[in-house]
Amino acid sequence: MALSVQRPLGTADVTPSEIHKWHTVEHVAQDIAETFGFKEIRFPTFESTDLFMRSVGETTDVVQKEMYSVIAKESKFTLRPEGTAGTIRAVMQNGMLNDALPQKVFYITSCFRHEKPQAGRLREFHQFGAEMLGSASPAADAEMISMANSFLKALGLKNIELNINSIGCPSCRAQYHKALKAYFASKTSELCGTCLGRLEKNPMRILDCKSPVCSEIAKDAPLISDYLCEECHDHFSQLRSMLDDMNISYKVNPKIVRGLDYYTKTVFEFITTDIGAQGTVCAGGRYDGLVEQLGGASTPALGFAAGIERLIMTMEKQNCMFMELRKCDLYIVPMGSSALGKAVGLAGLLRDEGYMVEYDLMNRSLKAQMKYANKTGASFVLVLGDNELEAQKAKLKNMQSGEENEISLDDSFVEQFNTQFMACYFERIDTDSILEESLTK
């Protein structure tokens, strides 16, 4: 039967059979962020459209082509296309810049962009992001890159290349813009309509155009590295020295400009070739003018974001380790209404102890219940019938070994189950220890 209503194009469902992969990334993200002293922040799904116009930039693809905006009672709102602007707005509005600096926050959130859906690029996607406000030191840049690098390593990812660049400050970028305008001036007949509009307002955006024609023209454009002022050059040199001290391998890529206008000085991307064209799994940089641009005092800041869908795609491609799906610890098979009542009580006692316990809710036969218990991956099965209720004893079956042990159904039931469960599984590696092993690699 065909479904009459399906999910929107460019979105995806995460079913219970896949959610453990998301939990893996989210667990590692939180653990690494907190290790570096970052605390979680949450902010609205939609913001005033003006926030993104001011921060992301009017000449970017995001603002010009990709935002989901709505007018509600004469107010214009937009679903967040990225996480930085909302984070900075929240930090400013809640007075966090009045506290001790630097302020360090992270988030795991959904974002929305109207793009052509393809592998690794959805219209609703999810990000792990981190932002640091208050430090102008290149040590802060190295710290953020180190944190992103540690996160990717903790996930078990391999063959990830770090590319870095400096796109300068407003002062040296003004000279660079002049050079770009001069370069593209003789090629206006070949540029797409969007890039023609960018030529006067922000010619650097042409370097980020997805049009094959514009990309080809931009290949021979002047490089920002040739126009850096002394301060920006020194900042970048110190960053490179610190990355060397951290033993973090990198490649200087003068072609990186990033797709959002708020970036200044350091920009970076972690790239893989394992998921095709959409190979950037984590990216970020400095945005020293953003706080001031949004009405605050001049405050240096920087951050990064990693796409969760792309991370999972890469982890799958590289056969990385995921948290195990949690399976049923005990499946109780009740035969009759009296046994069902006992099963309900026993299940409640064990659930209070943290065990995952299920019992039949479909009035199945004994054979059907045992078959279903196997499907759940239950570690133990307990069959309850009139004989068991009368004797106040039952057989607890280990579904892996087939071994059966008698267990009392009286007040000592929980203690006995604990003993038998731990006896069989004291060497079991739980999901936390799996991730802990990954984090120490």
How would you sum up this structure, described in words?
This protein is of the alpha+beta class. It is 39% helix and 20% strand. The chain is built from 16 helices and 16 strands. The protein has helices spanning 19-35, 49-55, 61-66, 84-93, 138-154, 170-185, 193-201, 212-218, 230-245, 290-293, 308-317, 337-352, 366-376, 386-391, 413-425, 431-439, and strands spanning 39-40, 46-48, 69-72, 75-79, 103-112, 124-133, 161-166, 251-252, 264-271, 280-286, 301-307, 330-334, 357-359, 380-384, 393-398, 404-408. The protein has an eight-stranded mixed beta sheet with strand order 1-5-6-11-10-9-7-8, sandwiched between helices. A hairpin with a 5-residue loop joins β15 and β16 (404-408). α1 runs antiparallel to α5 (138-154) and α5 (138-154) packs parallel to α9. It starts with 18 loop residues before the first helix and ends with a helix. Mean pLDDT is 91; it is low at 427-435.
